[in-house]
Amino acid sequence: MGSYILRRLALIIPTLLGIMLLNFVIVQAAPGGPVEQLIAETEGHGGSALSRASGGGGGEVTSSSGDSRGSRGLPDELLKEIEVMYGFDKPAHERFLKMLGDYATFDFGESFFRDRSVIELILDKMPVSISLGLWSTLIIYLISIPLGIRKAVTDGSRFDVWSSSAIVVGYAIPGFLFAILLIVLFAGGSYLDWFPLRGLTSSNFDELTWYQQIGDYFWHLALPVTANVIGGFATLTLLTKNSFLDEISKQYVVTARAKGLEEKQVLYGHVFRNAMLIVIASLPGVLVSLFFTGSLLIEVIFSLDGLGLLGFEAALNRDYPVIFGTLYIFTLMGLVLKLISDITYVLVDPRIDFESREGS
Fold this sequence. Notes:
By secondary structure, this protein is mainly α. Helix content is 72%, strand content 0%. Helix 6 (118-153) crosses helix 9 (210-230), helix 6 packs parallel to helix 16 and helix 15 runs antiparallel to helix 16 (320-348).
């Protein structure tokens, strides 16, 4: 297993390079960019935009600057100054190589429009995304696995039918729509005013005792996590049910029952270990989705300033250092989570041997 982990860790490097190169090329070909935006703002505000953005670094990124800039009426010296400020005076391959060198040390440069380093922005937004993703994933798994097992054991029963109906309805409701419903019902919208509408903590959080801080933290998370969970457990529940049904029909289960083992011993001593493999395999995708993509609208609705919102705003503003920095972090975490998933495979079922599979 040790050599397999080392090989997987070594493969992370070329995978990151390939993904960063692909996105670098795509951004290079995309229309618009921070230079064009700043030029337009400079023309509209008499040059004040240039002075506000003078702190923006990030020569490690690319731009899709068009040839039409010279016809906008700005002096050539000002155009060159803007290009130098953003690092677009260098050829594309030099910018890409510099980006790789900087990213190797987690130096993502400065945001073009926020006057802060990218790593500071990521660290500042990370607690929100981790809070949403971690608690949502935990609750989804705590609900889905027992529910899926129960549905598999009682397949075709009244409980199975009505629970499937509830799951389908929950899955059909978009998370952001359910979030709005929760606000209307419980956050002072039209009925009850039980939960706060914005932020991860209260304004007086530092003045609270430690147990009050814990309560305040979960008080703010209650509605956004609920909105995240409502549609997330449907797929995992049905996946667990179908996995258990597939295992229950196999010969080794029939043999175990014929030996006189109790149903709980058969279910949790034999079926559970095999049925959980496919559920474990879905964990990295669930984590990455809930951490960085699935919670975007939830963050917007509940005014939670997390990584999803940060990446979205960076894409709109063509803030390339933030785009590439968050992409790098997302990709790296996804690859590491996938490796952790494989290790968990072996912990659940020691019969799995990835090293022999790679050698075959």
